[in-house]
UniProtKB/TrEMBL annotation:
InterPro entries in UniProt: GDSL, SGNH_hydro_sf
Keywords tagged on the record: Signal
Signal sequence, renumbered to the chain: 1-20
Pfam family, one: Lipase_GDSL
Protein name, UniProt field: G-D-S-L family lipolytic protein
Domain of life from the UniProt record: Bacteria
GO molecular function, one term: hydrolase activity, acting on ester bonds
Organism: Hymenobacter coccineus
Amino acid sequence: MKPIVKYSAPALALLGLALGGCQPNIDAPAAAAGSADFTSYVAVGNSLTSGYSDGGLYNEAQATSYPAILAQQFGKTGKGPASFMQPSFAPAQQDGSGYIKLQVVNGALAPVIPSAANSYLGEKLAATGSVLASGQLQLAAYSGAQPDNLGVPGISVLSSLSALTNGLAPYGLLNPFYERLLTAAEKPSKDYVTYIGQKTPTFFTCWMGNNDVLTYASNGGVASAADPFSNLTDTTRFGIGYRAILSTMSKRGTVAGIAANIPNVTGIPYFTTVPVATVIASIKANPQLPNAAAASLYITTGTGTVRVATSADLLTLTAQAVIGTASGTANPFPVGVGYSATQSNPLPSKYVLDEAEVAAVVARTTQLNAIIAKTARQNKVALADMNTFFTTVAQQGVAFNAVSNTAVFASGNLFGLDGVHPTPRGYALVANELIRNINNFYGASIPTVNINEYRGVVFPQ
């Protein structure tokens, strides 16, 4: 387990007094690259690498992505990149895909998602008006040279392979964040492994695999017919894909880098903000509900069984907007979705990760992390155990320069309004953990950043 990060000087001051009342200046070690060369740094990964936050990808978020922070800190070693290019949107479309904002709605704070119906959010979106085969809105094409931040929101190890290898669909036609990086000729044919292989880095970071479990989990264990990559990825195809990614970037163990493993996604605010016990207590205290004291929360499990929810089940963040609402069935509000004691109006499976599904997600994460660890060793690169790191953050929080930061939804500073992705401060924390591992593995002295200089969730003034 990792201790809470705290920075304090009193012990050093007391030691100085005990040695004669003089306190010598204690300087931080000079920044140095160790055995690594950061002059050409490339970041490979998914939404976490791109800087995706608050349910969207936009220029401000990209500028505070952990790769952008790393590139900045690498530069202090004298062996950093001269520049680090992000696939930014044009200034007139700086809000990219759009992102969730906190607004006062009917006198209460509420997360609001951008749409044509609430254009008052004032976001400068990059949507073209066209729709991809996946049903997602197409984004304005990126026209610059191939960027150094190759993070693609939504991508998994499975979808990074060619359609011939994964047996599924061409990803360049489905994912708007990947589609915008490709030429018209490349979209139906260029897979992500081939795309990242066009770069020749001297150092790389690779954080892949999250979506091989997260997409399934965040859909409540329900694979989407519209998304062929929405189930738990099997270990065989994951191994093929991950080995291809890491060997491509490390040039078979000759280029330095660091791989990060998959956090336990069941510990993020998306699954911890709406506890079953709290919901059941509110149901029993609802004066509008007939026989409320005997009522409970009924869910539909992944196998189609209807039963009372337990503390072993995890409700999604989106469930709070559905529980108790009228559904058009014979049991409208105040009985509401999930309230029915007759089990005729249960909460749909997509809003709950039931106990068996939780166990399946955790087990598959462990299996995939074993593949990541083995592949990192085979390619002679460092490994950051982000699974253990985020578990500790979720349990204990992080105190930095006397400022408390936690994994609590919205107010905890570290996670954004989608309940999944970090805020800029959360990404700064990620950058520091990667720096710690890089320093240990390559004998470097890369300085960390003050995470409190990066913002958390923006609250309306």
